[in-house]
Design goal:
There is one protein chain. The chain is mainly alpha-helical. The chain has a single domain, classed as MetI-like (MetI-like fold, Orthogonal Bundle). About 75% of the residues lie in helices and about 0% in strands. The two termini are about 35 Å apart.
C-alpha cells in the first residue's frame, strides 16, 4: 500500500505538493470569480427586469449567448480574443486622443482569463436566479417604500435587495457548486489548477487512475466543505419560516 501511494508523497519524490497547490489555486480561482459573476448576474437581471427598450434586449442577449455557449469555448474566446480586443481598443483610444501609437500589446495571464471567462458564464446563469427572485418580491414592498418617501435607489438597497438575496441564496449556492467544478476547464490554457496538475502527474508517472482518484477526492472535499457552509448560512439567509434544503 505504501508503495502504491508513494507517487502522492510530499517533497521531490512525489506529487502531493503539486496537487495541494493545484487545489488551492482552484479554490482561489472560484473565490475570485464569485463576486464578479454575481455582480454581473444582478446587473443583467435588473436590465431584463426593467422597461428600457435598449437594456432589456441587451440583457436577454447576454443571457442567451453565455448560457448557450460551451464554457470551454468561452474560455478560449476570452484567453485568445480579449488581449487582441484590448490592444485594438488601446490603439483606437491613442488615435482618438491624437497620441503617437505606442504599439503596446496587451497581455492577459491564465488566471485573469479564467476568472473573466468563468465570471461571464456565472453571470449569465446567476441572472436567471436573480430575475426569479426579483419577480418574487411582492409589489406591496415597493409600494410601502414609496409611501415612506424612499427614492427608487433607497427602496432597492434597503427593501428589495435584502429580500432578493434571501430568495436567490439556494440557487446561487447551486451555481457556486457548478463553478467549483467548472474551474477544471481552465486547465486547457495551462493554468496549474487541480485538474492540470493531476494530468501532468498522470503523464509523468503513468498512473492516471491514482491521480485522477486523488483529484476526485480533493474536489469532493471542497464540495463537502461548501455544502456544510451552505447549511450553516441558509437558515439565516432564507425567508422566515422556510426550512433549509437538504
Amino acid at each position: 500500500m505504501t508503495e502504491l501511494l508513494a507517487p502522492l508523497a510530499f517533497g521531490p519524490s512525489g506529487w502531493g505538493d503539486e496537487l495541494i497547490a493545484g487545489a488551492w489555486l482552484t479554490l482561489r480561482l472560484a473565490l475570485a470569480t464569485l463576486p464578479i459573476g454575481l455582480a454581473i448576474g444582478l446587473g443583467v437581471a435588473l436590465m431584463r427586469h426593467g422597461d428600457s427598450r435598449i437594456l432589456r434586449p441587451l440583457g436577454e442577449l447576454y443571457g442567451a449567448v453565455f448560457r448557450g455557449l460551451p464554457e470551454l469555448l468561452t474560455i478560449f474566446i476570452v484567453y485568445f480574443g480579449a488581449p487582441r480586443l484590448a490592444t485594438h481598443l488601446l490603439a483606437f483610444a491613442e488615435a482618438a486622443l491624437g497620441l503617437p501609437p505606442s504599439g503596446t500589446q496587451v497581455q492577459i495571464d491564465g488566471f485573469m482569463a479564467g476568472v473573466l471567462a468563468l465570471a461571464l458564464v456565472l453571470g449569465a446563469f446567476s441572472s436567471e436566479v436573480f430575475l426569479g427572485a426579483i419577480r418574487s418580491v411582492p409589489e406591496s414592498q415597493r409600494e410601502a417604500a414609496d409611501a415612506l418617501g424612499m427614492s427608487r435607489a433607497q427602496a432597492f438597497r434597503l427593501v428589495i435587495l435584502p429580500q432578493v438575496m434571501r430568495l436567490a441564496f439556494p440557487g446561487l449556492a447551486n451555481n457556486w457548486m457548478t463553478l467549483l467544478k467548472d474551474t477544471s476547464l481552465v486547465s486547457v490554457i495551462a493554468l496549474p489548477e487541480l485538474m492540470r496538475q493531476a494530468n501532468l502527474a498522470a503523464l509523468a508517472t503513468r498512473q492516471p487512475f491514482l491521480f485522477y482518484l486523488a483529484a476526485c477526492l480533493l474536489y469532493l472535499a471542497m464540495s463537502v466543505a461548501s455544502e456544510r457552509l451552505r447549511l450553516r448560512i441558509e437558515p439565516a439567509a432564507s425567508p422566515r419560516g422556510a426550512e433549509p434544503a437538504r
